[in-house]
C-alpha cells in the first residue's frame, strides 16, 4: 500500500533533488530526448517485479509537432543466472524476451538502460559489463561487495558520461523527503543527534542468501540503507563508526553453530562536518516495532514512522514541549518516482535518487562497521574522494 495523501494539494515537481551537486563529470553520451527508453532487467527478483510496473506506468512523452505522445519506457527483456526463474518471471510479468547470457542482453540495440537486482555478488560484474556496453545503469544496493569494485564502477560511469544510479528507494519516501526539507528550513533549530530503527523481522521466504556470508547479512541488507539516509538527510559524511553485533539466531544450525553473518547490529555513526553522533539499530529479528527515523534539535524533534517499509503509509511528526503534531505529506509511488528521476537523468535533466558516488560512500561506512565489529573498536573513515 502506498503512503496516503494527507493534504489535497498537488505534489511538487518530482525531482526535488536539483539542489544537490551534479555528480556526473560529463553529460550522458547519448541524451535520448523524447525517444522511448528501452530497459533490460538483470535479475528475476521480487523488487524487479515492482519496478517493471513503475517502468510501464510512466506518463507518455509529447512527441512534438502535433504528432501525439511517445511511450516513455518499455521493457525489452530479462537475464538471470537462473534461466528457469527468468522464464517464469517473463511469463508472470509479460516480459517479451529472455536472454540466456548477459552479453546478448547488453548487445541489444533497443536497450538503453539496465536495471540490476540480482544477488549482490553479481552486482559489480553486471554493472561493469553494462557500462562497458554503453548502457545507463540503475543498480539495487549494494553497488558492489568491495570498495575497490564500487569505486571502479563509479569512476567508469563518470569517465564514460553514463548515468549510474543506486536505487536507495527510501530517499523518495514522503515522510523522509519532508523531514529533509524541515531540517533544511531549520524547523528544529540546532541539531543534537538522532537515531534510526530499521528493525524488521526477516520473512521466512527471505531467509536464504541474506543469511550467508556472500549476502552480507543485516549490514548489507539494512544498515546500508540506514547510513545512506543519514548522509541524505543530514547532507554530511561519516568520520567514524563503532558497531556491535548482538544476536545471531536465524542462520544458526541445529548443532548450535552460530550464524556466519550479522543479524542484529547497533551502530554509532560520528559525522564529519557537524560532529553529531547518530545511533542505528538494524535487525532481522525484531517483529513488532515500526521503523523510525528520529532527529533531535534544540527547538524540537522530528520523527518519521513506517518510513522504511512500503506498508503501512509513512508518517511524520513534529514534537515540541511534549506536544506532537502530524505534518501533511504528499502521496507518491516510490518505485515510479525512482524510475522517473533516473530516466530524466538519462535524458540530460537532473540526477538519480542516488549516484554511483553515493553507493561508494555508503558501502565504505558499512564495511567500516563490519571491521568495527570484528576488531571490537571504533573505526575511522578517510575523507570521501572528490568525484
Distinctive features:
globular; 9-stranded mixed beta sheet; disordered N terminus; 387 residues; 2 domains; Dihydrodipicolinate Reductase, domain 2; Rossmann fold; 22% strand; alpha/beta; 6-stranded parallel beta sheet
Explained architecture:
This protein is of the alpha/beta class and 387 residues long. The protein has 2 domains: 37-169, NAD(P)-binding Rossmann-like Domain (Rossmann fold, 3-Layer(aba) Sandwich); 173-337 and 354-380, Dihydrodipicolinate Reductase, domain 2. Helix content is 30%, strand content 22%. The protein has 9 helices and 17 strands. The strands form 3 sheets. Strands 16-15-14-13-9-12-11-10-17 form a 9-stranded mixed beta sheet. It has a 6-stranded parallel beta sheet with strand order 5-4-1-6-7-8, with helices on both faces. A two-stranded antiparallel sheet has the order 2-3. The two termini are 37 Å apart.
Output the radius of gyration.
Answer: 21 Å
Mean pLDDT reading = 88
Strand runs, count: 17
Uncertain regions spanning at least 5 consecutive residues:
1-30
Find the CATH superfamily of the largest domain: Dihydrodipicolinate Reductase, domain 2
Order of helices and strands: EHEEEHEHEHEHEHEHEEEEEEEHHE
CATH fold-level assignment of the largest domain: Dihydrodipicolinate Reductase, domain 2
CATH secondary-structure class of the largest domain: Alpha Beta
Overall tally of structural domains: 2
Give me the CATH architecture of the largest domain, please.
2-Layer Sandwich
Amino acid at each position: 500500500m502506498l503512503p496516503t495523501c494527507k493534504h489535497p494539494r498537488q505534489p511538487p515537481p518530482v525531482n526535488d533533488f536539483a539542489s544537490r551537486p551534479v555528480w556526473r563529470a560529463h553529460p550522458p553520451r547519448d541524451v535520448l530526448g523524447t525517444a522511448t527508453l528501452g530497459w533490460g532487467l538483470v535479475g528475476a527478483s521480487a523488487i524487479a517485479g515492482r519496478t517493471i510496473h513503475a517502468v510501464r506506468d510512466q506518463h507518455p512523452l509529447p512527441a512534438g509537432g502535433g504528432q501525439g505522445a511517445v511511450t516513455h519506457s518499455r521493457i525489452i527483456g530479462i537475464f538471470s543466472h537462473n534461466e528457469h526463474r527468468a522464464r517464469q518471471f517473463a511469463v508472470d510479468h509479460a516480459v517479451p524476451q529472455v536472454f540466456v547470457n548477459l552479453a546478448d542482453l547488453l548487445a541489444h540495440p533497443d536497450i538503453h538502460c539496465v536495471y540490476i537486482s540480482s544477488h549482490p555478488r553479481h552486482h559489480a560484474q553486471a554493472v561493469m559489463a553494462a557500462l562497458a556496453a554503453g548502457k545507463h545503469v540503475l543498480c539495487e544496493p549494494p553497488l558492489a561487495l568491495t570498495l575497490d569494485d564500487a569505486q571502479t564502477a563509479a569512476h567508469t560511469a563518470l569517465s564514460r558520461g553514463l548515468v549510474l544510479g543506486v536505487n536507495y528507494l527510501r530517499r523518495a519516501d514522503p515522510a523522509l523527503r519532508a523531514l529533509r526539507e524541515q531540517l533544511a528550513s531549520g524547523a528544529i533549530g540546532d541539531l543534537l543527534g538522532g537515531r534510526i530503527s530499521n528493525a524488521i523481522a526477516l520473512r521466512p521466504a527471505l531467509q536464504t542468501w541474506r543469511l550467508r556470508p556472500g549476502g552480507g547479512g543485516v549490514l548489507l541488507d539494512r544498515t546500508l540503507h540506514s547510513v545512506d539516509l543519514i548522509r541524505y538527510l543530514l547532507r554530511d559524511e561519516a568520520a567514524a563508526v563503532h558497531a556491535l553485533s548482538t544476536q545471531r539466531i536465524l542462520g544458526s544450525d541445529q548443532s548450535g553453530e552460530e550464524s556466519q553473518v550479522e543479524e542484529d547490529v547497533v551502530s554509532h555513526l560520528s559525522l564529519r562536518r557537524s560532529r553529531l553522533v547518530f545511533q542505528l539499530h538494524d535487525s532481522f529479528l525484531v517483529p513488532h516495532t515500526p521503523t523510525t527515523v528520529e532527529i533531535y534539535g534544540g527547538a524540537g524533534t522530528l520523527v518519521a514512522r513506517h518510513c522504511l517499509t512500503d506498508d503501512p503509509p509513512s508518517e511524520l511528526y513534529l514534537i515540541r514541549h511534549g506536544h506532537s503534531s502530524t505534518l501533511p505529506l504528499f502521496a507518491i509511488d516510490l518505485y515510479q518516482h525512482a524510475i522517473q528521476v533516473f530516466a530524466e537523468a538519462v535524458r540530460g535533466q537532473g540526477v538519480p535518487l542516488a549516484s554511483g558516488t553515493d553507493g561508494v560512500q555508503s558501502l565504505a561506512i558499512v564495511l567500516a562497521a563490519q571491521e568495527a565489529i570484528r576488531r571490537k573498536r571504533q573505526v575511522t573513515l578517510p575523507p570521501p574522494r572528490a568525484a
